Amino acid sequence: MPGLTAPSDYAEEPPRHPDLRINSKEPFNAEPHRSALVSSYITPVDFFYKRNHGPIPKVDDISRYSVSINGLVNKHIQLSMSDIRLLPKYNVTATLQCAGNKRTAMSKVRKVRGVGWDVSALGNATWGGAKLSDVLELVGIPKLTSVTTLGGKHVEFVSVDKCKEEKGGPYKASIPLKQATDPDADVLLAYEMNGEIINRDHGYPLRVVVPGVIGARSVKWLDSISIIKEECQGFFMQKDYKMFPPTVDWDNIDWSTRRPQMDFPVQSAICTLEDVDVIKEGKARIAGYAVSGGGRGIERVDISVDGGKTWVEAHRYQKNSVPYISDGAQSDKWAWVLFEATLDVPANAEIVAKAVDSAANIQPEKVEDIWNLRGILNTSWHRIKIQNSVCVAQSKM
User: Fold this and answer.
1) Which of 74, 267, 327, 346 has its CA at a distance of 20 to 30 angstroms from the CA of residue 2?
2) Cα–Cα distances in angstroms (integers) from residue 65 to residues 224, 296, 333, in the given order
3) Does the pLDDT at position 205 exceed 70?
4) Residues 362, 356: contact at Cβ < 8 Å?
């Protein structure tokens, strides 16, 4: 790609916040501490999880950078950043979540493969850029199109990013054309994050943001867009990020039997406590996040302090001054919901959180029921085991 530095220069890593929990250094993958994650509705860029599959590219000459649009369309074009910035700009608040979020809890049931994420492999940002539906009109594809005149049904995003899983080739993924051309799907070519130029870790100078879908489809460091007949045949679409039942293991897996994962299911996590924590018996604030894919809102978040025998509904909010209503006109449909409840916590309690979305989808109770060999989509109830501080002190005597 024009403007991209040579591979020998990739080793120059961007600066990062020292409080991030580093899950792997090469490629760099890191998440914030859970308590920092929910300190604000909009996740600061420094505390937005970093997910990479290879060395981080560096564009050193933005004037030479461009994105090609090709494939099953009658018109092929090259777009510079100036061209993209001439299109109407939209700001979309959306949560991106790695499909491997909460993988460490799943690995405690049985070993899985993948980066060991805790509960913070997600973040909520306001993304600024051009809608993909507007961009595709430049090559003659009208809005709300499901198939082009040449038979294109999918939109493939190809990155500058090179990764070993693609045998040194670029990272790539695709979404259906009908989603790409739907203005209400809010798919963006984003050049801003939280009102500032997007940084290298998050895809500078241009990335795709596909709201409501697992983060693996929001391709960073965009190189090209291709209109194709079948879905992308890349590694991360065909041999990864697919949901298998607990009976499937590496000796009997058949990747072709499952479709690539797109929307993420309803999810929640408690962020003010560790999975095993010590607090005083009595009143405690329990807070965290809940989110669902596909633009579905959060209808309810239930909290239990007795392992799920009895429940209390938590208060839900996005913006402090605006009441949150699932599917409400004032609600950010692609964004997470924060929740909190102040409850009496007995000694040696088990605190549990579960969320219900606007389609009445509910989190599964047991991680064992959704265990899968890649450790993705662990949306089981989040459980916190509490040890009373007095009891802990006595045990040390």
Assistant:
1) 74
2) 11, 36, 33
3) yes
4) yes
CB count, 10 Å around CB of 330?
A: 10
Q: What backbone torsions phi and psi does residue 389 show, to the nearest 5 degrees?
A: -60, -35
Query: What b-and-e string marks burial along 210-219, b requiring 16 or more CB atoms within 10 Å of the CB?
Result: bbbbbbbbbb
Query: Do 367 and 360 meet the contact criterion of CB atoms below 8 Å apart?
Result: no
pLDDT at 363 over 90: yes
User: Is residue 373 over pLDDT 60?
Assistant: yes
Report pLDDT digits (tens) over 223-264. Answer: 999 999 999 999 999 999 999 999 999 999 999 999 999 999
Tell me the two tokens of residue 315.
């208060």
Q: What is the mean pLDDT of residues 327-349?
A: 96
Answer yes or no: is pLDDT of 394 > 70.
Answer: no
Strand 222-228 and strand 66-71: the pairing is parallel
SS (HEC) of the chain: CCCECCHHHCCCCCCCCCCCEEEECCCCEEECCHHHHCCCCCCCHHHCCECCCCCCCCECCHHHCEEEEEECCCCCEEEEHHHHHHCCEEEEEEEEECCCCCHHHHHCCCCCCCCCCCCCCEEEEEEEEEEHHHHHHCCCCCCCCCCCCCCCCEEEEEEEEECHHHCCCEEEEEEEHHHHCCHHHCCEEEEEECCEECCHHHCCCCEEECCCECHHHCCCCEEEEEEECCCCCCHHHHCCCCCCCCCCCCCCCCHHHCCCCCECCCEEEECCCCCEEEECCEEEEEEEEEECCCCCCEEEEEEECECCCCCEECEEECCCCCECCCCCCCCCCCCCEEEEEEEEECCCCEEEEEEEECCCCECCCCHHHHCCCCCCCCCCCEEEEEEEHHHHHHHCC
Other CB atoms within a 10 A radius of the CB of residue 78 amount to 12
| Predicted local confidence at residue 321, as pLDDT | 86
Comparing CA positions, the residue from 277, 272, 293, 282 lying closest to residue 340 is 272
- Token code pair at residue 17: 């916040």
Structure tokens at 65: 């950078």
Q: What are phi and psi of 311, to 5 degrees?
A: -135, 150
When pLDDT is cut at 50, 70 and 90, the band that residue 2 belongs to is: very low
